[in-house]
Amino acid sequence: MLLSITYTGRNASDLGYLLYKNPNRCPQTFELSFGKARVFYPELSEERATAALLLDIDPLDLAKGKNDSLGLFDYVNDRPYVSSSFMSVAISKVFGTAMTGRADARQELSDSPLELSADITMLPCNAGDADFDMVARVFTPLGYDVNYVKFVLDEQFPEWGDSRYVNLSLRGHVRLRDLLRHIYVLLPVFDRYKHYWVGDDEVEKLLRVGGAWLADHPERKYIADRYLRRQRGLVSEYFARLDEDNPEPQPEEPTEREPSLNEQRLNAVYAALKASGARKVIDIGCGEGRLLNLLLKDGQFTGITGMDVSCSSLKRAWLRLKLENASVHTTERITLFQSSITYKDKRVQGFDAASVVEVVEHLDMARLDIFERALFGCAKPRVIVLTTPNRDYNAVYEKLPSGETRHKDHRFEWSRGEFSNWAEMVCARYGYRVKISGIGAESEDFGQPTQMGVFEKCE
């Protein structure tokens, strides 16, 4: 599969500085887990320069190491030829610095819109005419002139119709970083067989790389649905996060971007657990293991346990944490198991600290007392860090109808006063004291979007 990017204009040979790929050292080869990527410059002058990214995939290599029984598709497929999610991964690995917009030697040029074009070979349009139409509807709002070439399956048998592949050409006056980000996100939209596991981290990626351009795109629902492989839970999470965080346009350096509310929340919980001095920690309702991943990187935590009611979430946590190939030292530190905090489960006992991140609001109010007895009365860790939405802050979200919760599965959301009253009641009943704080951007009238309680067992 081939992607070529052409810069037409003054000092066009500076394209090499923007891509961080020296034309005089080409071809350059990069080893990837699924093949090799090669960069070369088929055209280079002061007026016009073209950089090409050629991805070489061996489908036999892709089939190696699979535990499941292999089918014919694992060996005979179109993966080596089509511009798909493999190409997106190659773009991020090979042109990752260019995607950030950093260009030390030509920063002013990197920050400027340029006359750029991109040619993408064999873009799959699996839904036929519907996808052909969507190619233009997806790329045109981003400022591109869009052209594509269709092919007949066999000229001798025109009744067979058109191939489901097109060669796509984009032309626009855009920044290079934006062109790369657009292609990076949108290629998998037209790829039915995304080659890697699609989990919650894909939502984070879509929010980070999509940024404002995707938030304002007229076809953003189509793009998010296809990018996340029509997983309704992930698509709902993406739009909930998009509305919740109200992301601003991406800053020039991703390292300087404002952390999302979820990142701020996890970092705050991690900091509270670390400050408590806890060594054995259980994350109740661990989901796909984001907090566990933070804890695992800190040697203070010698025993880390993730518990969730969803087996599929635990499976994704296992994959996120890469436990299948982890060292013995790592696997001895971490445990995952399925259970519910509304049960009196002995496996939840014996921990220094417990985290309960955005879980309690998913319980029916009638079952709160069971939750309290199980956690504060039976498990009774020395420290409990609990977060939940602040209902007062919902007034800040203009797109959230009055009286609605932030997520369709929330059974309730506490105001600041209600959360404080509940926390004090639990402390009085089970012998804890609590310190309440907020997380996220603060509103003078409504506080912060997330409220966090750090409960400590009284001596």
CATH homologous superfamily placement of the largest domain: Vaccinia Virus protein VP39
Largest sheet: 7 strands, antiparallel
**Beta fraction:** 15-25%
The neighbouring-strand order within the major sheet is 2-3-4-1-5-7-6
Q: Tell me, what is the CATH class of the largest domain?
A: Alpha Beta
Q: pLDDT below 50 for ≥5 consecutive residues: which ranges?
A: 66-70, 246-255
CATH architecture of the largest domain: 3-Layer(aba) Sandwich
Helix content, binned percent? 25-40%
Number of helices: 17
Counting helices, strands and paired strands, the structural category is alpha/beta
Distance, first to last CA: 65 Å
- State the shape: elongated
Q: Work out the oligomeric state of the chains in this entry.
A: single chain
CATH fold group of the largest domain: Rossmann fold
Radius of gyration over C-alpha positions, nearest whole angstrom: 25 Å
User: What number of structural domains do the residues give?
Assistant: 2
Number of strands: 14
Question: How much is the average pLDDT?
Answer: 86
Account of the protein in words:
The chain is an alpha/beta fold. The chain has 2 domains: 2-196, c-terminal autoproteolytic domain of nucleoporin nup98 (2-Layer Sandwich), CATH 3.30.1610; 261-457, Vaccinia Virus protein VP39 (Rossmann fold, 3-Layer(aba) Sandwich). The protein has helices at 15-19, 59-63, 72-75, 85-94, 96-100, 107-110, 129-139, 176-186, 200-215, 220-227, 232-245, 261-275, 290-296, 311-320, 328-333, 368-379, 416-430, and strands spanning 2-8, 28-32, 35-44, 48-57, 114-124, 144-152, 162-174, 280-284, 303-308, 334-338, 353-357, 383-389, 432-439, 450-457. The strands form 2 sheets. It has a 7-stranded antiparallel β-sheet. The protein has a 7-stranded mixed β-sheet with strand order 10-9-8-11-12-14-13, with helices on both faces. 37% of the residues are buried.
